[in-house]
Write a structure and sequence with these properties.
Strand content: 15-25%
Number of strands: 19
Shape: elongated
Structural class: alpha/beta
Distance between the termini: 74 Å
Number of helices: 21
């Protein structure tokens, strides 16, 4: 609200938020005290005009084309006017009876004036026909039609320029969760007390101490909740897909959500952070003992653990052999396209916890010497049609890259399943890279191999931003999908930012150009189709209008030079112009996209609006049209061509 980028911390002493502010981190419950124009944000928005007059890149290029055509038309009109005036006053212009229309000293001033007015009207008509005033109408119709149809294809366009730019996209940096996958997560594997649990939610043989600690940690270290449905009486789980999967698994382990939360009080929470890939909570139990629970990316939590609990409930040292064993388990789960989450805990002396609440807010929860409790694998299946959608993009010359926070093995497995990674491509250098490795290179080094990257795992928001910047510097037109607050910088930096309408945060949506309403990658492909259709329709209309304009100008110019008369009168030219600028624009601007658009390469940043093929078609069509019309004109006057 203030225009400053620095985050402001809110607590019980300063709890008020202004409408329009975005929550960057943490969670809580909000009481709304004012809405609409009664808020500061509402007053600001009321003063902003909806139309800012911004011109899209295509409109800028069209203005250049229109200006060029207008200048040529004006030059032809002036030339025709001068030729006809000279022929008129030299007596070479004849009426329908074959007599000169002007004779020096015999023709009255009124007749001479009428002749000049007719010649001037012809010249003005040529200018009117030459100037492509139908272009703005065609552009507006195409964009309006495309935006409406894209809404039916689950894409909400926030910025007009995105419609055109998406047709030029050369690469798409896609998120994994919810876009390439269904975002319907379930725990399908669990490794507890040094052994695999089959099924993962069975409590048979599970040490009571591990069960109690897992239930305690999951119930308190979560942003989700569990409540009983009033209708069916069944337990309903709410929260993010990952939280719902973990809470559902804990319920099957015997967790009573409300009872567990009442057994301890929360001293401090370290909310899950996309940079650190983990979240923690410090609890004070009823016996005044302090437990600290951590959960997050399995390999990161594993590195923090010094001990583990075996099947008898005894604490064992985490030896290098045991670490390697756990890492192989994580790699095996990841290779099976599972998201690996680990749970760990430790105790803490109550005297080491700050007593004052303000000091406790800045207290760093201890994250060393942890005891590993469990490693679980969460399955998030790929969307049924995502492989086909990726293949369509690749055929269209658009490279799809996956950028995810999951570990490199899960990312590789999902990318292979989706068709992003082709057989043998994973062996190429830099095809698969971790975010921290990419970040460690200098800017110049990144530019050398960024084109080879297909998958980036364990990426932070900064890594995603660096990737987008490097691709743009290499000349790519980059589209980026994202749903989280941390994706906002990359969405803003990209040529086209695509946020998710279901899972996307308000910050991500505000930073994007297009909102994908169903969070489906297949809808992104449809946006590319419509983007290319906008550009193709404009090119069709330009070719159509230029053919008519140049043919009309040429026939009048040639006839004026050769015979001193024009075959197309002012009324006829205006009638052709009227039909061409209205019905022609309507027909060509509303043409639906075809499959042919997705088998040709994307339009480059600097590719001219009028291509060589269009010039070829234009010259051939104008030549044939002019020859035919001029032959008919001469035939009507009893002459031959």
């Amino acid at each position: 609200m203030t225009g400053e980028s620095k985050y402001v911390y809110k607590d019980k002493k300063n709890p008020f938020l202004m409408s329009g502010c975005k929550v960057a981190d943490g969670y809580g419950t909000m009481l709304v005290t004012a809405v609409g124009l009664n808020t500061e944000w509402g007053l600001v928005m009321a003063t902003i005009s909806e139309d800012n007059g911004e011109e899209t890149p295509l409109q800028v290029r069209l203005n250049g084309v229109a200006t060029f055509i207008g200048k040529v038309g004006l030059a032809v009109a002036v030339l025709v006017f001068l030729i006809l005036i000279i022929r008129f006053f030299t007596g070479h212009t004849e009426d329908k009876y074959g007599k000169p229309m002007f004779k020096a000293g015999k023709t009255s001033v009124g007749d001479a004036f009428n002749g000049i007015v007719k010649i001037f009207a012809i010249a003005v008509t040529i200018v009117v026909v030459a100037v492509p005033e139908g272009l703005p109408l065609a552009v507006t119709l195409t964009l309006a039609y495309s935006m409406r149809k894209m809404m039916a294809d689950k894409a909400l366009v926030r910025r007009l320029s995105a419609c055109e730019t998406m047709g030029s996209a050369t690469t798409i940096c896609s998120d994994k969760t919810g876009t390439l996958t269904l975002n319907q997560m379930t725990v399908v594997k669990a490794f507890i007390a040094g052994e695999s649990r089959e099924p993962p939610d069975t409590t048979e043989g599970l040490p009571p101490v591990i069960q109690a600690l897992l239930v305690e940690g999951i119930s308190q270290n979560t942003t989700g909740s569990v409540c009983k449905s009033k209708g069916s009486g069944e337990m309903e789980v709410t929260g993010s897909p990952t939280e719902k999967a973990i809470l559902s698994w804990a319920l099957k382990l015997g967790m009573n959500f409300d009872d567990e939360r009442s057994k301890s009080s929360v001293l401090h929470v370290f909310t899950f952070n996309s940079e650190k890939k983990r979240g923690g909570v410090a609890l004070k139990r009823s016996d005044s003992e302090v437990h600290i629970h951590w959960k997050g990316a399995a390999e990161i939590i594993l590195d923090l653990c010094k001990t583990w609990i075996d099947s008898s409930g005894s604490v064992q040292e985490m030896t290098p052999t045991k670490v390697d064993e756990n890492k192989k388990i994580i790699e095996g789960m990841a290779a099976a396209t599972l998201r690996c989450i680990a749970f760990a805990y430790r105790t803490c002396d109550l005297h080491n916890v700050p007593v004052d609440e303000e000091q406790r807010q800045s207290w760093q929860i201890p994250e060393d010497n942890l005891t590993l409790l469990a490693i679980v694998g969460i399955k998030d299946p790929c969307r049924p049609n995502v492989r086909e959608a990726v293949h369509i993009c690749q055929k269209a010359g658009v490279k799809v890259r996956m950028v995810t926070g999951d570990n490199i093995y899960t990312a590789k497995a999902i990318a292979t399943e989706c068709g992003i990674l082709q057989p043998g491509e994973d062996t190429e250098q830099y095809a698969i890279i971790e975010g921290r490795d990419f970040r460690s290179y200098s800017e110049d080094e990144r530019l050398k191999f960024v084109d080879k990257i297909c998958v980036m795992g364990r990426s932070s928001p900064t890594d995603k931003l660096y990737l987008v910047q490097a691709l743009r510097k290499r000349g790519h037109v980059v589209a980026v999908t994202g749903d989280g607050t941390n994706d906002a910088p990359a969405l803003h930096e990209a040529d086209i930012g695509l946020s998710m309408g279901i899972q996307g945060t308000e910050v991500a949506k505000e930073s994007s150009d297009i909102i994908i309403l169903d969070d489906n990658f297949a809808s992104v492909v449809k946006v590319v189709r419509w983007g290319r259709s906008v550009y193709a329709n404009i090119q069709k209309f330009i070719q159509f209008q230029l053919t008519v304009n140049v043919a009309a100008l040429t026939i009048n110019f040639v006839a004026a030079i050769s015979s001193g008369d024009v075959p197309l009168t002012a009324v006829q030219l205006l009638w052709v112009n009227l039909i061409m600028d209205t019905l022609g624009a309507l027909a060509l601007a509303t043409e639906a996209p075809t499959d042919h658009l997705m088998i040709r390469p994307p339009v480059g940043r600097r590719e001219p609006l009028i291509t060589n093929i269009m010039w070829r078609n234009l010259i051939v069509q104008v030549t044939l049209s002019t020859k035919l019309q001029y032959s008919l004109y001469l035939h009507s006057r009893g002459m031959t061509f």
